[in-house]
Amino acid sequence: MGTKREQWSSKLGFILATAGAAIGLGAIWKFPYVAGMNGGGAFFLMFIVFTVVIGLSMLISEFVIGRGAKKEAISAYKKLAPNSFWVWVGRLGVIGCFLLLSFYSVVGGWVLLYSGLAVSDNIIHEGADYGQLFGQVTSTPWMGLLGLALFLLINIVVLSFGIKNGIEKASKYLMPLLFVFFIVLVFRSLTLEGAMEGVRFFLKPDFSSITGESVLYALGQSFFSLAVGFSCMVTYSSYLDKKESIPSAASSVVFMNIFVSLLAGLAIFPVVFSFGLEPAEGPGLLFMVLPAAFSQMPFGSVFLSLFLLLFLFATLTSSFSLLEIIISAFTEDGKRSRKKVALVSGMVVFLAGIPAALSFGVLQDVLIFGQSIFDATDYLVSNIMLPLGSLLIALFITYRMDQHLVASEFQAGNTLSPSWFTTWTFLMRWVVPLTIIIVFINMIGLF
């Protein structure tokens, strides 16, 4: 293949695109409702610890593997460990991204539909029941399928243009706007009557509410919100220039992720308690809280429309990374058209997402281990496959990958002392795998 491999145009472009991939639904949609279902403050504290100690270490690892191989996920493991079973770590990532995208795109469809309703001024009005509106959107088959189809169509179009002209260009302009709007929403939420009760729920740890399952959820959320465990970041970092510092870039992404999770909690929980909503509401929490909060603001409909459009963008940047790992797996050899692979991949994901899209309506009585199709897919991906993928990556980078290459990638582009590399290696060799194993054992009741 005589073509030169595409690269990010700058470190900032890479960080914003990676943060966009990580933040999206993980920090804004999923974090508040999972925290609400698992004790609030104690969950947030565990999430921070897991994200800084384990999530950051994992993110650096995926960056090292990706830039070290200069290949997408499957080809990266083939190159670094030829003729071995390690290629299945990459294949597990592609399968996991496919499953994750199948239910993720359903939520993306909800955001898209809500954006359309907000722009047409059909959400905020006198006496509105936002819980009923959410139920209507998610349980109406044609609405769920339309949202799913349109959301995936946007993904297909953007990813057809590639890395620099598609993902990076969009991320660079719209991610900062999302931060600004979030801060505005936080200020408004904190001035509502009864808001401090929500702040206490979110920031004051109550460890009596912690169970083995909530620890697993906190670990799973740290992986989900950073998009690590499925080698998405292996693919993203394969486009990263050698002169950029991997630890620095990874730390920036982790900081932004925790900051947005903090903003999400401070924006959502004061409204939940002010309006007498239930913090353990589940996947619909955000869609009930946002309209309630913006209805209390001057020009609420305008602000809600703008926020939902930016939220839609954050949702899309996350889905881009998931679809990119699938597309790049089939276009790495240069034999297939990127546009055709993007189209076919999107259509297959749409078919796979139909059961999850209908699990709030016509398929709501179909349960898997007592959970809806949507919730069961989410649980499988977030709490089993992501930690398992992270465990395998930790074992790969410490016991199989060439340690000279690992060290050179870690040190390239930075002036960190060798002790930082030693600390990271210790975390990846012992702390990360043992933590994942202990949490798994605790989950199945054997610990």
From TrEMBL:
It is found in: Membrane. The keyword Membrane applies. The chain crosses the membrane at residues 12-31, 43-65, 85-107, 142-161, 173-195, 215-240, 252-277, 297-320, 341-360, 380-399, 420-444. It is a multi-pass membrane protein. CDD domains: SLC6sbd_Tyt1-Like. InterPro entries: Na/ntran_symport, SNS_sf, YocR/YhdH-like. GO terms for molecular function: symporter activity. GO terms for cellular component: membrane. Coiled coil: none annotated. Its main location: membrane. Keywords: Membrane, Symport, Transmembrane, Transmembrane helix, Transport. Belongs to the sodium:neurotransmitter symporter (SNF) (TC 2.A.22) family. This is Transporter. It comes from Halalkalibacter okhensis. The lineage of its organism: Bacteria, Bacillati, Bacillota, Bacilli, Bacillales.
